[in-house]
Amino acid sequence: xxxxxxxxxxxxxxxxxxxxxxxxxxxxxxxxxxxxxxxxxxxxxxxxxxxxxxxxxxxxxxxxxxxxxxxxxxxxxxxxxxxxxxxxxxxxxxxxxxxxxxxxxxxxxxxxxxxxxxxxxxxxxxxxxxxxxxxxxxxxxxxxxxxxxxxxxxxxxxxxxxxxxxxxxxxxxxxxxxxxxxxxxxxxxxxxxxxxxxxxxxxxxxxxxxxxxxxxxxxxxxxxxxxxxxxxxxxxxxxxxxxxxxxxxxxxxxxxxxxxxxxxxxxxxxxxxxxxxxxxxxxxxxxxxxxxxxxxxxxxxxxxxxxxxxxxxxxxxxxxxxxxxxxxxxxxxxxxxxxxxxxxxxxxxxxxxxxxxxxxxxxxxxxxxxxxxxxxxxxxxxxxxxxxxxxxxxxxxxxxxxxxxxxxxxxxxxxxxxxxxxxxxxxxxxxxxxxxxxxxxxxxxxxxxxxxxxxxxxxxxxxxxxxxxxxxxxxxxxxxxxxxxxxxxxxxxx
Length: 494
Prior knowledge:
There is one protein chain. Strands 6, 7, 8, 9, 10, 11 and 12 form a seven-stranded mixed sheet that branches. The protein has a five-stranded antiparallel sheet with strand order 5-1-4-3-15. A five-stranded antiparallel sheet has the order 2-16-17-14-13. It is globular, with a radius of gyration of 27 Å. It folds into four domains: 2-73 and 219-290, Sulfite Reductase Hemoprotein,Domain 2 (Sulfite Reductase Hemoprotein, domain 2, Alpha-Beta Complex); 86-206, no CATH class; 299-423, Sulfite Reductase Hemoprotein, domain 1 (2-Layer Sandwich), CATH 3.30.413.10; 436-491, Rubrerythrin, domain 2, CATH 2.20.28.10. Helices cover 27% and strands 25% of the residues. The longest helix has 28 residues, at 396-423. The chain has helices spanning 16-28, 48-61, 93-102, 164-177, 179-182, 190-194, 245-257, 281-290, 299-302, 311-326, 396-423, and strands spanning 2-8, 13-14, 33-36, 41-47, 66-67, 76-77, 111-114, 128-132, 139-145, 152-154, 157-160, 204-206, 223-227, 231-236, 243-244, 263-265, 271-277, 304-306, 336-339, 350-360, 363-374, 383-391, 436-440, 446-447, 483-487. The model is unreliable at 427-433 (pLDDT under 50). With 494 residues, the protein is α+β, with helices and mostly antiparallel strands.
């Protein structure tokens, strides 16, 4: 029996020297292949009788790890996309590394640090999700998803880069100190959480607009590709998720030989090497040829997300990719997720979920599959709609094709709507929003929504329909139902 050792690489950034030493330790216990996880970690499978030896070797290296546990989920970031898939942002390599350096503790809940101008790294799969502002440099939106729920809330403040670590640590402390209120509670409220956050010494700005997330378009993320005129990046994908230890050792050596101080692992269980010089391109091609690595997989295979340590999910992925290829189905813009475990989480806008019709403790029979679609097919939203339920495996490809067709219809509809709106002349409103007021029938006192009634604790801008039923006229004390809606112009008021 094997156990899995998990090693976190914060932000997905890996030192070739450190990885090489880890691989040497893995080789000492006869490990031939390693894997990368959804949260940009290294996963090493080792036999039970070798775990002790591997732990000793990792302890010698000073490497933090977990065995068969996930108490400290990795901090993931969109740094692997920086410069090659995201090029118009103020968010640079230095900013990512500064944030990761400030976070000098191991979070116990999931933290994501992402550029809003990319869709390569999932932005909202964490519990504490920092999304770079597109309006204010060095400021960040914060979206919290309460652990073990689908409840999300956005902070109305933008946080300065240097204070992300402090806010993250404090939010985690608040959440873990009141698990009843903030963990597994579908009625959890963001205001209750943010009101407990001490903000006195923080640099903040009011968020004028909600965070704007880029639409999902997965870039082709493997092969040796040119960017920035004279640089190349290399992306390596493995269909079975297994990376040869021998290959990775040679890759680390080549990074060091060509003066590349880092490589990246991604949320797609792949690796990326950036900033390869033109003169070194041949060396990298020789490395790929030496190990016979295929670099041009079909796009309908690359846009699948499968749970970590999941042979069932990989087998189902292979089955579905085969049928998508036979039918020559267009899958551009779609992220497929495969979920075989009840409590796992997979980034997707079309999710295939496996369960059993007969499920009694350890006794499970008759596997079937549901197809779910994310709200508006946006993978950064929670998966909300069941498109097709309880499909046997034989019918699953056909039902998936229908879900894909629905996705394309949705996308075409959105494009047509945007095109129509682009050419429609802007029309002024027939009547301004403040053209009406509400007047008491008895004493003719007026309630103006734009002014409110501060004397009664009613803020300006409060709509009449949103007033409490206990609201009454400030003069004659008649109740809310005694007010009538009239045109402000008829009162000759300014």
